[in-house]
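Hi support team,

I submitted a single chain yesterday and got back a structure, but I'm not sure I'm reading the token output correctly. Could someone confirm the output below corresponds to the sequence I sent? I've pasted both exactly as they appear in my results page.

Thanks,
R.
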Amino acid sequence: MSELGNIKIADDVVKVIAAKATIEVDGIYKMTSGVTDEVNKILGINKMTKGVKVEVGEKECSVDVHIVVEYGFPIPIVATNVQENIIKNITELTGLRVVEVNVYIQDVKVKEASKEEVILD
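Hi R., thanks for writing in. Yes, this is the structure output for that exact sequence:
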């Protein structure tokens, strides 16, 4: 507590920062949350923070993200870049210390060739 009072950053704020930091990384096809992703599709819910789970304390936080990687990108490099970008963004924007970022690779997505590319081959 400072002389001015308490500052509490909501979990949803940290989730949005983590989600934005994740999708900025090259090689990310999309974020996914497994079963809840399918339920959200049925209900017509499309939240930016799907696939992100956070635990936020007074001075630190931890993050779990579930992602789908584009085929052709090295998975370990993509995952490390996600971890680094999440830590950088959360630290800079909130002042919280990020104690861990767990990245779960749920799938690999092959981009479909457009009709023009198929015709040219």
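A quick pointer for reading it: Residues 34 and 51 are 8 Å apart (CA to CA). Let us know if anything else looks off.

Best,
Support desk
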